[in-house]
């Protein structure tokens, strides 16, 4: 056992056990209770980072009976990550991956192992659904209402529910009358044996193509309904050899491999240029997809035409699959390049009026992703709900914070969907934990985002996104009005830069003198300023200016007295 300071330089002191890879930290200041909602990659990274920061008073609420989020819920045949494992994983957790693109079971096991290795399982509450979180201005805390009718209080709430938690069910006429088996891809009914059956898969997004490829060898006949094709790349997966596994699971090998993929991803189009029509990077990516189509369907021009999108590369999230096109060539597989017009007792009628009889109907129709955070009612200052504030148009500062919703942070929130999701989650979790540590050190009771930063940042986002290929096509990134509410416009490397550059100038912290129990707080440690890294300070000047945001304020000047509400103003200077 070795005594260390916190792993990020400042924060609580703690005891690190290298053998177990765990931190046992001591609370050095007042406890700060944190509720984390969701136990997927986001909830888990948050739990680990909180523990490393010495904030041990946190609870991770999970509505399911197990952890993993989408990797727990999506158990459909062929479910696997379409990104490289060493890149689609936590930077702080090396692992002995069996393949370049592990399947759902292996990823879930990775998450389970991570939770156990970092000793945070005790903080998880399974089968506990959060329904409402409401800010209490007097207590400077959120009341978290659970499905069983109970309420708990936390000073800070982190939503880690992600984008893909509510399956999108189609509203086809006649769907209820269908007499066969039907289910959504995210709620796969494993009790049904598909061997020899006539199966329809509706949807050719990332999920649909994986299912088609996986079930084609066993079904009797497969009908694939494609409403609109997307650009598709071959994944290039392989099973690692023993030598590769030994090399890549060592810390240095793991890091080198991560960096290789990071470089590859960014080099394809630094600043998101590969997703901007009219750029050479975009044309290059599209040409590669076209060559793939031409190669696979050289003898089937009808299929080549059917799978070729009419919008530029990047108009929908790219689909990665090494076997989908090849599967469409199989004799017992039929591609119906049209939408569903209605469902009958025996099958599906396409928009040409042709009925396709099937025994099983799989709806790989995606998720209500743009309806961000709809499953939970979040109520901020003056009783305003996030749902009403957004009115169907989710937005946030760096995808995390909303003015008027203090002490609330979202991971994988609005406009953060791009490239490596796990890297983005880690970046957002670090940002949130830095704010929490600052609160703890300074004795601040609320942390807010400045409205000017929120407004300017979103203005910049929408300006950048208006040039993106996503603006040219129909996709799940858009709200009902057509505003792009999910994607981040450039690489996640830039998201990292912005998070480091903008946290200090954009954040305003206030403190009240009342503790939750009503006693006056004697804040000695509160007067200690929180150290700011030189990088953060430099970036906050240069990027803030570039984005035409208000100039960064001095660190200490941001921790201001709370003059609006019931607490006494405190001068921290
Ligand atoms: P999706 O990309 O939204 O695709 C849904 C598909 O269903 C689309 O082809 C869509 O057609 C079609 N569809 C939707 N409603 C329909 C309707 N009423 N009638 C006919 N067709 C309909 O959803 P997804 O495939 O589940 O993927 C969602 C996201 O999850 C992905 O973009 C990716 O980010 C993530 N994902 C990741 C992995 C991974 O390996 N990491 C795997 C799976 C999913 P249109 O295109 O015409 O709308």
Give a description of the structure:
The chain has 573 residues and is of the alpha/beta class. It is built from 15 helices and 25 strands. It has helices at 41-52, 70-73, 104-117, 206-215, 242-248, 251-267, 280-296, 301-307, 324-328, 386-390, 421-442, 451-465, 492-506, 534-546, 555-558; strands spanning 2-4, 14-17, 22-25, 34-37, 58-61, 124-125, 130-136, 141-146, 151-154, 156-159, 181-184, 198-202, 221-225, 232-233, 319-320, 333-336, 340-343, 347-350, 355-357, 360-363, 377-379, 408-410, 446-449, 507-511, 559-561. The protein has a five-stranded parallel beta sheet with strand order 6-5-4-10-22, with helices on one face. Strands 11-20-12-13-16 form a five-stranded parallel beta sheet, covered by helices on one side. It has a four-stranded mixed beta sheet with strand order 9-8-7-21, with no helix packed on it. A hairpin with a 4-residue loop joins β18 and β19 (355-357). It is globular. The model is unreliable at 1-29, 520-531 and 548-573 (pLDDT under 50). Bound molecules: NADP nicotinamide-adenine-dinucleotide phosphate. NADP nicotinamide-adenine-dinucleotide phosphate is lined by residues 80-83, 164, 170, 202-208, 227-228, 316-317, 339-340, 364-367, 474, 476.
